[in-house]
Fold each of these.
Amino acid sequence: MITLENINRSFGDKQVLHDLSFDIADGRMTGFVGSNGSGKTTTMRILLGVLAADSGRITVDGTAITPAHRSAIGYMPEERGLYPKMPIIDQLVYLARFHGLSRQTAKKRGLELLEELDLKGEPTDTLESVNLGNQQKVQIAAALIHDPEALVLDEPFSGLDPTAVERTLAVLTSFAASGAPVLFSSHQLDLVERLVDDVVIINDGRLIAAGTTDELRRERSSPEWTLQTDADMGWVREVPDITVIEFDGNWVRFAAPDSTTAEAVLRKALDVSSVSSFAPHIVPLNRLFQEVTQS
Amino acid sequence: MSTETLTRTDSAANRAGFTTAIGLVIEREIMVRLKSKAFMISTILSIVILGALVGVSGALPSLFSSTDKVAVTSAGAEAVKGIEDIEPVVVDDVDEAKALVSSEKVDAAVVDSEDSPTGVAILSLRSAPESLIGSLSLTPEVELLDPDAPDPALTYFIGLGLGLVFFMAAMTFGNTIASSVVEEKQSRIVEILLASTSARVLMFGKVIACTILAFAQIGLTAVAVLAGAAVSGNDLVLGKVAEPIAWFVPLFIIGFVMVAALYAAAASMVSRTEDLPSTSTPIMMLIFLPYMAVIIFSSNETVMGVLSYIPFSAAVAVPMRVFLGTIAWWEPLVSLLILAATTLLALLVATRIFERSILQSGPKLSWGQALRRR
């Protein structure tokens, strides 16, 4: 587990991170969410050692992070980049050797990765000669080339077509499933919601919320239910402790303090008409995000 | 796609050490240039052309010389005997010689003359051949007090040559290192690199690689020039400039490291190649102005003395003064020390700027901003 504790960082007189603390658990996908300029990239750079923190500490399984730890992280920066005019396999080997791999090992692993990622084109082609989708595969290969023990990816899905998104997803989930911690930032909250086990939300460099998506829902808003019946549901507004959020004749979405209160609504509905559906409503992360960043 | 095999294994990779990492950067920088057709073609062309020029220059005098046909009378024939480049055409008398000269069948005529102290006179249509006049004239005895004294024209050309070598290398490879830095910054690969190594490693690796390339290119050119000189038997190139060149080499290497480091720093301050001139022009002027000064003031000993202590002109001014023999034995050493100290300072400043600016994207920084940044 990687733990960030009270990380502070300023650029000039502008403080961009304020006492930021959160965990990246082993074998879990942690989504890192925040508006533009909220400090996500800075946090990731500090985690990788590309930037230094002004104060605070980072630990790996309880001990302070070392360069060897950092070297075992696979990193994909937000603005992707490799050498456009260098052969694909050569740059993978070059990057791997900074992590202490021998040329032979690096080349073997690079070729395997490109094969698995289904690169269309020769490994000896220059990067600029293959299309964007394939360049993206090479970028993923670059993050995995040194057989990392953790992954940190800054906006791995931005600018990808649906096929590429699925491909990247498959790589990330299989990687996390092997027991490694994975942290990635994304603006695509629907994706984050589908994908992540844990969410870390920051705003203006401050931690707003951290935990599993379920925990966040429980903490941040009262649970909601939807109810669909044959008859008009106007009477729901009169039930004590119930807040109607959305109403459309025979359909209603309401918030209730607990499930007993919600079930009372269901019982009453059954008395007046037949019920075609009754279900807890999952608040989309999108709305949760709006709530927590605006509150 | 099978994703099972993408899982990690137990072989945790170790971060490459400082020197190993620098070695990797040097290797890549050199291999990229060696694989670049443009670089190889321009290098090979310049080497071949320079070598050939020096080789041909030895043969030039014979290409331009020509044999003059000269009509001679009996006394004339005696006078021109032993003069090179002359083909005597024996005639009976002065009139016949005049006729041949008038019809331009011969270039000149040497005929009997009782008025002339030499006993002969030269006839020619418009102008008499210089070599002929010289050979037939009485010349006062000339005593050369210092036959080895440097020829001012030669000094000028040595200054021009060494200056050109330094200036071209600094400009070419300065721009090479700058574009290599901007490429990594612009493509953002620098962020991946910085996650596995330090900014210092990147900068030192590039500076060392460019110095090696520049020196190899100049070394090969020097070999070609010397080979050309050997072919043409031009002992001037071989003999007199050995000592100046012995000083030029260390001054060049150290001075080049300084220039390369400054170029790397200049490049780290911009995000796009288009912005590069605005930060690299000051460095170019630092190289260009002293270079011009060395050429303009090549015969002014005071100015040359000062220039040999200025780090940016030392590599050219010191060898020139060594050639002229106007330099005390300790002066090149002091100049070398000053240059080394300046280079060390430049490396420190450049590393500082590089480390602080390399992740900066967006508008370019000024030198002042880059130094103040934290």
Amino acid sequence: MSKETKEREPLFSPKNIKLLTGPINVTNPITVQVLGICSALAVTAKLMPAIVMSISVLVVMAVSNVVISFLRNGVPPRIRIIVQLVVIATMVILVDQILKAFVYDVSKQLSVFVGLIITNCIIMGRLEAFAMSNKPWPAFLDGIGNALGYGVILIVVAFFRELLGSGTLLDMQVIPQGLYDFGYVNNGFMILPPMALITVGVIIWIQRYYTRELIEDN
Amino acid sequence: MYTNGYIFRYAAIMVIIAAAVLSTAAMFLKPFQEKNMAIEKMGGILISANIEGIETENTIEMFNQYVVEELVVDQDGKIVESFTEGKKETAKAFGLNLKTQLYKKSQGENFELPIYIIEKDGEKTYVFPLRGVGLWGPVWGNMALGSDFNTIKGVTFDHKGETPGLGAEISTSAFEEQFKGKKIFDENGNFKSIKVVKGGAQTLPANQQIHGVDAISGGTITSVGVNDMIDNVLQGYLPYIQKEK
């Protein structure tokens, strides 16, 4: 080290905090970068699968970001994508096996979508764009941040879809029977994938309205 | 700076580590996963016989409570084993691999099939497990017959990976409910199975409608798979059913 005076960056320096909070709002993977939409449409009909999916993505993303960040100096550039895929795939299979062992019902509901975390573009994108060129700790925060940004949107979408589509939250009835007696009916359309897309669209609209950085000049 | 040798060594070591991690995890998690699958199997058997109030936590208990006898029957309808005492999930019938037995059947070899007898309110229900092929992979289920061995009390279906919204609809109650009250024999005692009819059961002649249910629009291959599964597996049970009727 040429400069002995150079202090170690604190663990939660403003720059690092930004890695964590940025993806939740201004660089949100779903609403701003529009990545990982397919799984967001598929698993948000009910709240429970959306939560489990978010946690699974969080684990896969944080761990693979850290692993790739540790490996970053030894990975031959020519096979770096393959290396990234092997790390992600290993993590996803592990998560899938653990879900099958401990929350079997949920893993049946998620069915193929757990396996499809492998192809979730957010994860590959963060590995390639961030973890390959940053130290493990920032990479870890970046992974957590992006997964949270993904998870928040998933959970918000699932909240409205389950509430309006089935009248339940986490499978518990929340819309009182009295309302049904007055002629209220669940909106079956909310359960279908197109409504997820529209809900995401509404979220993007609201987010753009309130977030100055995202408002384009013209 | 990265020679080919380095790249190959790197890839080889990485793959070996990944394989080691995964196989270790699979070994540790297997008992838990097998227990879940057994619970699911028990749940399916009970639900087809219209037993209510089944939760993941109480399935094993309920299974032991309602299943009074587990039979293993051979290709001639002879009872190979009758299991009544002890833990029901340890019976030979429960451990029988339907896939292997049905393969033997298709090869014309001797085979053995399980039957679960469920008693509720003094009424006996006979549950026959089913297994066949859908569009993308295996489909399976259970069919519960009343003690006349003719009227269907209920069915359950499940699948490995049929198309969501189309073939996958076979495991919804809307499809399964149709089977209730249908008959597998006609008045003369001829085996008719249950036809899964494209275009709807009402297109069948009036006296045949009791042997038919509606297929799923857009899920024709899965529907045909269910149709063939019921026919094929019940054929295997037929000698036993004819004897008992």
